[in-house]
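Saturday, quiet lab. Running sequence design on the structure tokens for the scaffold JK sent over.
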């Protein structure tokens, strides 16, 4: 077969899982192809998957823009900066966001060229095998049939729709629609107070929408540390996000210029609300449509994810699957790390992903981040632990920034002092959490963090103080 059609590794999907897997395969010396079907305006490919096109990157761009606006409106005055006639240009904000996305798309295309990865623009599907090599048919602008010794499936996920309320991205919006509203709607409804609901609700609240978030569970942020969740609820309420917990959604009726949601509230009373637009963010489902799983007998689990073992091996020889399309957290960095690990396993190395040290970050204001176990999880597992927290209100840098919300908390094993979890709510939590991840990866104790020199004045001093607090000896509180 023509060498341009024959590869050591074929990666299906060019999101953070797939494109990173392809780069690592190429670095390891494999002839590598990557197939991705995402297309931008004008028909050009748009490598980077959900994360780059309608996920992590555009959401953070809009969170940044809207936070600047909120600061200009509410926080600058404290710094002695007065702005008269403040206004927003949402079209420009969206255009900037689109520009950031395009830079990332182009960056991945460049990385593919640099690493000599053959890119095929289109939808890849299993079409059988040639001996022990897999045949993949590509449908789209880059139509071709290629064969590979190994296949890595990284086809990602799509938003889950509410039964009876399909996305139209006019009134009922998925994540793509939520990132592209031409103006802040007067009344914005959000179903699901998960990560998308809180982040996108925050963006549009800051830009002027009245935001109501309807959540089925009786608690907010049930997976987070309880004190973090409580502080978050307080701060979101202050910002004017109306979060209603314990609701059961009934009919969703789309009108000519609004959408009505019928639901029962936490007391069981029937009620309804009318919105100009409704974001539905109730989780995501694995994307395996059109992959030809049935053609080759690729096994899916009961929830539709591709079934894999701990090493990301599917039931088919030399076929691997990673990222959102398999079990585990739906996070870009989890997908990337699985991609690297699989590439290294194909090379006979021992790639590894430790699910216990995958950080979670919610990019609201305040930011929320954690790694490892919560106090509740440790109590439920009967693990004896010590906890220590330190508030940003007692941190000099936070005071200088004018953002003293929240705290850092460590939980450590009572007997060995080994760090079992770190929880942060407050400024730069997304950056601060790395210290906890590194500490846990190296099996550090809270005393290790307490003894390490941290620059002054930094927010990271609150991390050190929280570690000191585990031993009840904070210096600045
Ligand atoms: P994807 O990124 O979904 O990529 C899969 C790619 O494969 C897509 O381009 C798809 O079109 C393509 N594809 C599918 N089937 C085929 C086929 N048969 N042939 C060819 N191509 C195919 N995670 C974080 O860690 N941090 C965040 O801040 C964050 N923010 C988010 C914000 C939003 C609004 C959303 C929706 C998600 C966010 N996520 C975030 C989650 C993150 O986007 C996903 O976990 C991540 O994109 C998963 O990567 P993946 O490579 O598995 O799949
Ligand atoms: P999610 O799983 O985070 O939250 C969904 C929420 O909807 C949950 O609180 C759930 O209880 C609620 N819900 C489910 N069905 C409901 C119903 N019928 N009525 C009312 N509430 C209902 O999912 P989300 O926010 O859609 O995000 C999808 C994934 O994308 C997340 O799992 C996350 O991994 C990833 N993501 C990560 C981000 C980050 O890392 N900062 C940002 C955004 C998304």
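Result came back. Writing it out in full:
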């Amino acid at each position: 077969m023509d060498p341009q059609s024959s590869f050591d590794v074929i990666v299906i999907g060019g999101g953070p899982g797939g494109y990173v897997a392809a780069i690592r395969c190429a670095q390891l010396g494999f002839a590598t192809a990557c197939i991705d079907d995402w297309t931008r305006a004008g028909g050009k490919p748009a490598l980077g998957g959900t994360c780059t096109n309608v996920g992590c990157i555009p959401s953070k761009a809009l969170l940044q823009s809207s936070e600047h606006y909120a600061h200009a409106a509410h926080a600058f005055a404290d710094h002695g900066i007065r702005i008269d006639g403040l206004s927003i240009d949402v079209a420009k904000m969206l255009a900037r966001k689109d520009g950031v996305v395009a830079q990332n798309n182009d960056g991945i295309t460049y990385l593919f060229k640099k690493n000599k990865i053959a890119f095929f623009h289109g939808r890849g599907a299993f079409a059988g095998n040639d001996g022990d090599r897999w045949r993949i048919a590509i449908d789209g602008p880059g139509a071709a049939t290629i064969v590979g010794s190994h296949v890595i499936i990284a086809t990602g996920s799509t938003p889950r729709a509410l039964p009876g309320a399909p996305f139209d991205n006019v009134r009922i919006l998925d994540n793509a629609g939520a990132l592209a509203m031409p103006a802040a709607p007067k009344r914005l409804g959000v179903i699901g107070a998960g990560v998308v609901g809180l982040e996108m609700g925050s963006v549009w609240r800051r830009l002027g929408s009245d935001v109501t978030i309807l959540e089925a569970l009786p608690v907010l942020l049930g997976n987070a540390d309880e004190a973090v969740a409580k502080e978050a609820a307080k701060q979101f309420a202050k910002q004017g996000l109306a979060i209603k917990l314990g609701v059961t959604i009934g009919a969703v009726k789309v009108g000519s210029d609004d959408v009505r949601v019928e639901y029962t509230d936490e007391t069981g009373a029937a009620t309804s609300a009318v919105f100009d637009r409704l974001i539905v963010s109730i989780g995501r489902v694995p994307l395996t449509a059109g992959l030809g799983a049935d053609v080759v007998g690729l096994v899916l689990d009961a929830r539709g994810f591709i079934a894999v073992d701990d090493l990301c091996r599917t039931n088919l020889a030399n076929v691997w699957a990673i990222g959102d399309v398999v079990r585990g957290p739906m996070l870009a960095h989890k997908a990337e790390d699985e991609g690297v690990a699989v590439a290294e396993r194909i090379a006979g190395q021992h790639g590894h992903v430790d699910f216990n040290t995958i950080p979670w970050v919610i990019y609201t204001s305040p930011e929320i981040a954690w790694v490892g176990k919560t106090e509740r999880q440790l109590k439920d597992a009967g693990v004896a632990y010590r906890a220590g927290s330190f508030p940003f209100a007692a941190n000099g840098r936070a005071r200088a920034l004018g953002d003293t919300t929240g705290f850092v908390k460590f939980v450590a094993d009572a007997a060995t002092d080994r760090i079992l979890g770190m929880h942060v709510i407050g400024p730069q939590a997304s950056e601060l959490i790395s210290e906890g991840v590194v500490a846990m990866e190296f099996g550090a104790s809270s005393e290790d963090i307490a003894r390490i020199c941290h620059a002054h004045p930094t927010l990271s001093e609150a991390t050190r103080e929280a570690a000191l607090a585990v031993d009840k000896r904070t210096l600045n509180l």
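Notes for JK: The mean pLDDT is 97. The radius of gyration is 24 Å. Ask whether to fix the surface positions before the next round.
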